[in-house]
Design brief:
By secondary structure, the protein is mainly α. It has a single domain, classed as 2-Layer Sandwich (Nucleotidyltransferase, domain 5). The chain contains five helices and no strands. The longest helix has 26 residues.
Length: 109
């Protein structure tokens, strides 16, 4: 997402997230590794699609950023679901044990 915010100063991820808040998910980006049997994460294809969308000049940066965010989350969800299915993990039990382990106490420690 650095390509969206070059020259803007600051942290690229934060600035891209700010752009995404004002955009719409209207840019058709690929879902990485959708047809691969492997459990892996790769953003090279989606980053290239973002670069091509920028170079085309057909889309606002805000829309590209929003579309990237949505597709990145979809990729994470897709791969997590693949893991759950492969290892027969019930999502409700994962969610419960994960949040118990990683939640902060009300005191904010």
């Amino acid at each position: 997402m650095r390509v969206l915010v070059v020259g803007a100063g600051g942290v690229g991820g934060y600035l891209a997230g700010t752009l995404a808040k004002n955009g719409k998910d209207v840019v058709d980006l690929p879902l990485p590794l959708k047809n691969s049997p492997h459990i892996a994460f790769s953003y090279s294809g989606i980053k290239n699609a973002v670069r091509l969308a920028i170079e085309s000049g057909k889309h606002k940066k805000e829309d590209i950023a929003a579309s990237f965010q949505k597709k990145a989350i979809e990729h994470l969800t897709f791969m997590c679901n693949r893991v759950f299915k492969k290892y027969d993990i019930k999502r409700s039990s994962f969610k419960s044990s994960f949040f118990k382990k990683h939640s902060k106490s009300p005191g904010g420690s």
